Amino acid sequence: MGTDKTCPCGSGRSFASCCEPTILGAVAVTPEALMRSRYSAYVLGYWDYLHESWHPKTRPSRVSPTSTDWLGLTIVKTTSSTVEFIAGFREDSKVMVLHETSRFEQVDGNWRYLDGDCDVSEAGRNSSCPCGSGVKTKRCCGRP
Asked: Which residues in the chain come in under a pLDDT of 70?
């Protein structure tokens, strides 16, 4: 991704000044910063970073590429160790919504993704599109 491109995490900042430094090894200063960088890593395919940013207690043996087309991220609420977010994605021809509250812990001074409580559902045709456009799903990402 070009360094002048807008970051996939929805911050409005360039990738180079937002999530790229964290993905390349800078310390995420908050759980939200880690969560945003992990979302960007899923969008852009930084599988090794996703594996490394997982908490050792819950880390899978590997993180593999997926065919998921991520559409947008909305941060709902943050606390000192959690981030509630909504992420839209497309799998096959369905527009889906992932609503999760993720938990984070520090390990050796670095925030790591521990686990989360999530709900996945199909986006309603008349609900706001999960890409964040403000347009109904049927007129945005849900169009054939």
From this structure: 1-3
